[in-house]
Amino acid sequence: MYVTIDTSALIAVIGNEKSKQGIIEATSGCSLYAPSSVHWEVGNALSAMFKRGCSTIELARSALAAYREIPIKFIDISLEHTLDISHALNIYAYDAYLIQCAQQTSTSLLTLDKALKITAEKMGIHVLEIKS
Question: What domain range includes position 83?
Answer without folding.
Answer: 2-122
